[in-house]
Design brief:
Layout lengths: L2 H7 L12 H9 L8 E5 L5 H10 L4 E6 L12 E5 L5 H10 L3 E6 L5 H11 L3 E10 L19 H11 L19 E7 L2 E6 L26 H20 L9
Helix pairs in contact: 1-3, 4-5
C-alpha cells in the first residue's frame, strides 16, 4: 500500500471519493514530484478531501489549484490551495484560469465526467501543462454510460476522441495527407490507458533512431528487392498500386511472401 492509499484509508479530513485502483497509477507518475515546487490542478473539488490528500502527499512546496462549479467549494481554500468556481465546459472560463495560474506539472480531470467536459478541458488545458508534465483524465467508464452521453464506439465520447491520440503520436511516419504531425505529436512521450483512466505523459520527442548491432545469424526473408531485376520492378509497381488502392479504402494490404 503506497502513501496515497494509506492516507485515503486512514483519512483524517474531508470526504475523498476515489477508485482505489487509481492509487498505484498516481504513485507511478506523481512520486517524482514529491517535495518539489510542483503545480497541481484538480478539476472537481467535491468535498475538498482530495486537495488535502495531494497537499499531504506532495509536501509544503506544492501549489494546488482546484476547479469546481459549486460556489460552496471556495471555503476549502487554505495555505497553498486556491479554488476557482466555474464550469470546465466553459472555454472562456478555462482561458481565464490559464491567465491566472502558472504552467501545470500535473492536471487531474476528475470533474463532471461528461463527454463535452472532458473534451473541452483537454482542448483548452493540455497546452498549459508543462512540456514534461502529466495530463490525467479519470473515470473513462462514463464513455460507456448512456446518462453521460456514452456508448461503445459511439461518436463524441472521450474514449473515441482520445483514440485519435494513438495516430497522432505516430503521425511523423504517415505517408498520407490525412494524418500529419502537429504540436501534440511532438509533445507526448507516452499514452497510458488504465482501467477507467488515461495518462498522457508529456516529453520532447524526436524521430525513432534505429540501429543494428551484432552479427546476423539467419538468412534474410525473401522480398521483392531480392528478386531478379527483370521481375522485381514490375512486382514492385503492381504491389504499390494495389496497396495504394486498398489503403485508400482502408482495407487490409497485401504483403509479398
Amino acid at each position: 500500500m503506497n502513501d496515497l492509499e494509506k492516507y485515503f484509508r486512514e483519512n483524517p479530513g474531508r470526504l475523498i471519493h476515489k477508485c482505489v485502483q487509481y492509487f498505484d497509477v498516481y504513485e507511478r507518475y506523481f512520486s517524482k514530484y514529491r517535495g518539489k515546487e510542483a503545480v497541481v490542478l484538480e478539476i472537481g473539488v467535491s468535498h475538498g478531501g482530495s486537495l488535502q490528500m495531494w497537499k499531504n502527499y506532495f509536501g509544503d512546496k506544492v501549489k494546488i489549484y482546484g476547479i469546481d462549479i459549486n460556489p460552496e467549494c471556495k471555503k476549502f481554500e487554505e495555505e497553498n490551495i486556491k479554488i476557482f468556481i466555474g464550469s470546465q465546459s466553459d472555454r472562456n472560463f478555462l482561458k481565464t484560469i490559464k491567465s491566472q495560474i502558472p504552467l501545470i506539472d500535473i492536471l487531474i480531470d476528475d470533474g463532471g465526467h461528461t463527454m463535452q467536459q472532458q473534451i473541452i478541458t483537454f482542448e483548452e488545458m493540455y497546452s498549459h501543462v508543462k512540456s514534461d508534465g502529466i495530463y490525467l483524465c479519470e473515470d473513462l467508464h462514463t464513455s460507456y454510460w448512456l446518462k453521460y452521453g456514452g456508448g461503445h464506439k459511439r461518436k463524441g465520447t472521450f474514449v473515441e476522441y482520445s483514440k485519435n491520440f494513438i495516430d497522432k503520436i505516430n503521425a511523423q511516419y504517415s505517408e498520407q495527407s490525412s494524418l500529419k504531425a502537429d504540436s501534440f505529436t511532438k509533445s507526448v512521450r507516452g499514452l497510458h490507458y488504465y482501467n477507467g483512466m488515461l495518462v498522457i505523459e508529456k516529453g520532447e520527442i524526436t524521430d525513432l533512431s534505429i540501429e543494428k548491432t551484432g552479427t546476423p545469424s539467419l538468412s534474410e526473408t525473401t522480398d521483392v528487392s531480392r528478386l531478379p531485376k527483370s521481375l522485381a520492378k514490375p512486382a514492385n509497381v503492381i504491389l504499390f498500386t494495389v496497396n495504394s488502392i486498398l489503403r485508400f479504402f482502408r482495407l487490409p494490404g497485401i504483403i509479398w511472401k
